[in-house]
Design goal:
YefM-like fold
């Protein structure tokens, strides 16, 4: 039978057989080992306790066997990968130790890392690819299969130069792409036909004209014109100067504009020189080196 409830005994109380059995079932017995306990406690019940003097430990009967009432079944704590410490006795601690980890080749598309989720402060794992995607803003930084790519910088840089002198009051046409030793371009090239430049892709472009101009007794102007319908050109930038009578004057004029290229088939640019002295006014060009140039740089998305 099982031990009964606690009883506050008074002098003269009758101790019944059942009450005495409760007292006996609640006693901590002392025996040399389990064999001696089994021999003596033939009517033991679940919860009967004895002190094993050989093993120096309390033991309790669980209904079918004696179990230690003092210690668990953990005999040691072993530090695994990324941990240090552990032990088989006393107070045992484990510490995070990344030096214990072995080196590995990173599989960006499939490997994961541990994170602390700020929403519930729990530990979770996240794939490196998903982490990269979360870090990308989709515009200046993009991610593909865990690989980050920076964008938004200069993706097109191109330059043309005038190969021969050209008289005023006409579209400037004698252009050739710069390809001298030591020069270079970025990305896709501009294209031109009869002095009209077509952009390789949409975006915001900085267009710069550097003109080497000769004039005599005249008012001279360099002009940057832009069309948004591939037909009608509008003057966006104009630089001008006037010379004294009978004096040849050489000027270098530089001007820049930003062009919003929303449609490469319709948004185009060209350059013109106007002079009041007709053929005496000219813009200089040379096939061997740069005197007049047009520079195109894509600096961002439209």
């Amino acid at each position: 039978m099982a031990a009964g409830n606690w009883v506050d005994w008074n002098t003269g109380d009758l101790v019944t057989a059942a009450s005495f059995q409760d007292i006996q079932d609640s006693i901590v017995f002392i025996y040399a080992d389990e064999t001696a306990a089994n021999a003596a406690l033939t009517n033991k019940v679940q919860g009967t306790i004895f002190y094993d003097t050989t093993a120096d430990v309390l033991k309790a009967w669980d209904g079918s066997a004696w179990i230690s009432a003092e210690t668990g079944d953990i005999s040691a704590v072993t530090a695994g990968d990324g941990l240090s410490g552990g032990g088989s006795s006393g107070d045992v601690t484990l510490d995070l130790d990344l030096n214990e980890l072995t080196a590995a080749s990173v599989d960006v598309a499939n490997d994961s890392i541990a994170i602390v989720d700020a929403t519930d402060n729990s530990s979770k794992k996240e794939s490196i690819a998903d982490l990269a995607t979360a870090m990308a803003d989709g515009s200046t930084i993009t991610a593909s299969a865990g690989v980050l790519s920076a964008g938004g910088g200069i993706t097109v840089a191109d330059q043309y130069y005038l190969t021969a002198d050209q008289a005023s009051n006409a579209v400037i046409t004698s252009w050739s792409q710069v390809g001298f030793t030591g020069t270079g371009t970025i990305g896709s090239s501009m294209s031109h036909s009869s002095g009209v430049f077509t952009f390789p892709s949409t975006g915001i472009y900085m267009v710069t004209l550097k003109a080497y101009v000769e004039t005599s007794d005249a008012t001279t102007r360099t002009v940057i014109e832009v069309t948004t319908n591939n037909s009608t050109y509008n003057v966006i930038d104009e630089q001008g100067w006037q010379t004294s009578s009978g004096v040849n004057t050489y000027q270098v004029c530089t001007s820049s504009i930003f062009v919003d290229v929303t449609d490469t088939a319709n948004v185009k640019v060209r350059f013109r020189l106007f002079g009041s002295d007709g053929s005496a006014d000219k813009i200089h060009g040379n096939a061997s080196y740069i005197e007049t140039s047009a520079t195109f740089m894509k600096i961002g998305d439209t």
